[in-house]
Amino acid sequence: MLEKLCASVIAVVLIGGIVPSLAHAQEANTLTAQEKAQGWQLLFNGKNFDGWHSYLQKSPGKDWRIDDGAIMLERSRTGDEKDFADLVTDAEYSNFDLKLEWKMTPCADSGVMFYVHESPKYRETYETGPEMQIADLVCTKPDSQVLYERSGDLFDLMSSDVERVHEAGNWNQFEIIADHGHIQFFQNGHKVIDTYFWNDDWRKLITRTKFAQWPDFGTFKTGHISLQGTEDKGDLPIRLWFRNIKLRQL
After folding, report:
1. Which is nearest to 180 in space by CA: 93, 117, 116, 91?
2. Is residue 4, in this structure, part of any structural domain at all?
3. How far is 148 from 111, CA to CA, in rounded Å?
4. Distance (Å, whole) CA 1 – CA 76
5. Where does the secretion signal sit in this chain (predicted)?
6. Which residues pair with 2 in a beta bridge?
7. Which of 32, 83, 150, 248 has the most crowded Cβ, counting Cβ within 10 A?
């Protein structure tokens, strides 16, 4: 009798707990009915590079590919920079809520930039677009050991007091909210940056950094979203993955 009771309890747990959770697990690179109603749109469909190209190029460089439902970069420390040039969205955005997931091999380094102005006048995305930094807490040097250059930081400008990044090989969640100059970063559900662009404090902050050499940095109020591929740090081969890239215009 006791064995039958235990078996019944286990069955209830499996049916009532685990099975529903699996049934309601959202498939990668999809939107729920609620997200669609809220105005979210996918920037990556999980199958191809529709909506993306490498900076100042017509299509993605050859080091970028689709791997198991994710945008993947695999590169060495050398080669033609066009092959691993930063990806940018075809479209530009002004006020938005952006969410995505990323993971990397140990010691890799990257970032998500926004308000990137694409023009031959600027050789790199970071000459115009601020960056939410991606860095391995354990071994990326010097970034993981330097304030303002850790994962989740507003690169070289503002740093969170606590780094909330997972160990290499695990997925991390980024969210960037840009609402009429009010900028918020969230890493794995924790707010890590809360600031304002384009005011006197913002301009003074830039003058104290390397970005002062690029007079148009952080001035554009509309621009492309970018995934950085030009960093050569990390164990070889250097690999980065991005998925569940979605945006809601505000």
Report:
1. 93
2. no
3. 13
4. 63
5. 1-25
6. none
7. 150
Q: Give whole-number Cα distances, 13 to 10, 19, 25, 38, 144, in Å.
A: 5, 9, 17, 33, 42
Looking at the DSSP bridge assignments, the partners of residue 70 are 67
Bond prior to 106 in cis (omega within 30° of 0): no
Euclidean distance between CA atoms 123 and 127, whole angstroms: 7
DSSP result, 16-72: IIIHHHHHTPPPTT---HHHHHHTEEES--SSS-TTEEETTSSS--TTEEEETTEEE
Q: Residue 12 has what pLDDT?
A: 39
Can you give the residue range of the structural domain that contains 177?
28-249
pLDDT, position 143: 52
In a domain, 124, yes or no: yes
Which CATH number covers residue 208? Answer: 2.60.120.560
Does 230 map to a domain? yes
DSSP helix/strand/coil, 141: coil
Domains of the chain: total: 1
Tokens at 216, concatenated: 């148009």
Answer whether 122's CB lies under 8 Å from 216's CB.
Answer: yes
Q: Supply the pLDDT for residue 229.
A: 97
What tens digit of pLDDT does each residue of 183-224 get? 999 999 999 999 999 999 999 999 999 999 999 999 999 999
Query: What H or E segment, with its residue span, contains residue 244?
Result: strand 238-249
Pairing of strands 238-249, 70-75: antiparallel
Chain centre to alpha carbon of residue 218: 18
